[in-house]
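Sample entry (145 residues):
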Amino acid sequence: MSLGRERIAALIPHAGAMCLLDEIVSWDTNSIRARSATHRAPDNPLRTGERLPVWSGIEYAAQAMAAHGALFGIVSSRPRTGYLVSLRDVRAHAAYLDELAGDLTVEARHVHSNAALAVYSFAVCVGEREVLSGTATVVLQAEAI
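Predicted structure, serialized as tokens:
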């Protein structure tokens, strides 16, 4: 069973064009896999001029993380805002997402969480080609730290 854009928008703090994921393809307690073709959309809100830098893939990964957190109770409800506070071991293997012909596959794996934060490793791929990967820490409740 997969989840479409409408269901994804109910799980994350973004709506409209800022909801970047088209479909959650699979998920379990430790990971989530999503698909998106929005990197090719000319009205993608993350575009800088005519281009969509590969670093925009971090937002795709963050949305997958937020959806996973909502699905598995890592956050108690749809978060108002999460704050990305740390990125580690980020590796980019492309300059721009918009020049990639295939759909993006966004994978996030839950590493650790508590009431205040969540840590996920992530990868953004097109087919078998990894274009961006790393580890992200997101603060869920700033007042709890």
